[in-house]
Fold:
Amino acid sequence: MSDLHSCAKSGETVVVASVGEASGTEGRARPTCLLLMPLTFYSFPKAFCRALEALGYNVVLANDEYPANPLGKALNKLDLAVGRRWTRRVVNRRFLSGRHYNLVVIIKGRGVGPELVADMRRCSDRIVGYHYDSLAYEPASAHWGSEVDRVSTFDYRDAAANGWPVVELFSATRPPDPRPPVRYRVSAILRNHSHRLVFVDRVLSRMGREGALIYLYEKDVLSFAFNALRHPLLYWRWRRQIHFTPMDYEAYAQVLAQSRFTLDYAHPKQTGATMRSIEARSLGIVLITNNTAILDSPTFDRRGVVVWRDGEGDPTVDMALERPAPRPRSPEAFMAEVIGAPPPLERSGGESRCVAPIGAAP
Structure:
């Protein structure tokens, strides 16, 4: 039996299907999971789908807001009730009618409301949610968080305010073996938003640009124009490091693994550890960040974190600081914490299936 995965996009859904049946499970029906999440958010859908597969589920994948196009994004970003009603109608028709799920997982759930949760409750055994943003920036989970069996978050402040457990994000890359030597004294591979350019300039002005690799990515022309008008002098200074396409993930992971320090700037409205922070920890890279909340997290070794606080004097950075030991965190470990329960089936060879209904967005 082949364990080769094939992945494809069809309409707004992502299909991740395995070739071959799971062995050793004849006569045992695998439990099913409905996973609602943003399908355009990097490679998260594939990673989460495969993590649930590894935990023993057959997965049906749906978007967390409809219509699955710019109109749907606008309606739900503006937190309009019509967006939640639209999402409820589509999810009921395409994913709930005539079905039963052992588990429903809602990731972010910007188009989800309490009425849709009630609909899902009638055709599922358990519902859990996860918010990888802050409520101050994306209040989606506030609409349905009290209606599900368990909700967790990456944001430390939201967790404390709502009594939710903190579940740290994951790293999609594992530490290379053997560990590569340091090639870059400091790296910064970031999408430009809020005050990130100011932060990069501030840190590199202190540390120096020798041996640095800086790659700043602008999402679109409007983002470029807005940021350039805010900081014209900085834009001119860093013009050769500003790009309109993101760096390929494999290239990014390679640069990160060969860095002694890497920069991360958390959005001012967030306190959770970003993906880049977790990736740095997983690869054993010293993290330079503005996020003071990381110092209170048991996940991070303080010897591997340098905090540059906004509005305060710049810290002294020991350029010879040794890289900490890698501490990998897999998508499977992440998802096991999100669902808050042991896996229902043990894997015994072969690969499970992850499927999604195929069809054009309504």
Summary: The longest strand covers residues 184-191. The two ends are 37 Å apart (CA to CA).
